[in-house]
Amino acid sequence: MNSRTPPNTAPSSTPASLGDPTHTHPDMSTPNAQPQPPSGASSGVSGARVPSLGAAVSHHERARARESAIVAKEFSSWYGAFQALHSLSIDIPLREVTAFIGPSGCGKSTFLRWMNRMNDTIPTAKAAGLLTLGGRDILAQTVDVVELRRRVGMVFQKPNPFPKSIYDNVAYGARLHRNMSRGDLDDLVEQALRAAALWNEVKDRLRASALGLSGGQQQRLCIARAIAVGPEVLLMDEPCSALDPRSTAAIEELISHLAEEYTIVIVTHNMQQAARVSDRTAFFFEGRLVEYDETETIFTRPANKQTEDYVTGRFG
Fold it and tell me: pTM, whole model, 2 decimals?
């Protein structure tokens, strides 16, 4: 990747402690659900807010997590009887860009959505195995999902600004999570917009509707909105697929800068994009992690023939 320049970002608040060591995941399937995954599988239902994110794990796993942002070990998931992910084991490094590649339906976005519990909205979604953020279980019943999603932000395939002003879009999360004076909030909005490389384009129309921005500007606004709440991880699900080449280039440059401060995981179908922006690349196929390595290795000397066939365009 190209050298990076750290953005001027708002400081993250101190992460909440993570609690309940019971790691119990109730069966939340609907009455007509299909056969359930193995015992110990977890549901995606959040429950009441508590001041913790999840269960403690072993000392060995905590030691690994000090070098990684997110760790999965033998992680599987289901939608009803359909198994979407099969025994994934992967370490997502701190403050690097990790790209997930693979054909449509291979499980890339499903795995991404487990990282901040977006699958909670699907009643039959279940998971088993270990998935941790900072050494603590993301899937524990006691997880405060609101706090988790503050720490693990999400940028979607299509820009989704709120029907509010540019200012109010960026300030929205901070108003929910932080007690700030108007002056501090103004500073935070400016810092987040600068970090998203959007400030110079919108500083004179902060009270204008965000819906009046171009597609590329809207996507950078969504990134600024995620940054403003002080996340540790940014998940990006095909963030450039709906953008023109110029806007795509701007987002890619922004990703490289943001990786100085944040851990970034990006799902992409664009092999050139994965090669340009990521430090490490994971290739998925039919719900399995086929190969995971440095991006240069994946694209120039992959260990697996199936990976080589995919990145060279022989299938997918």
Answer: 0.78
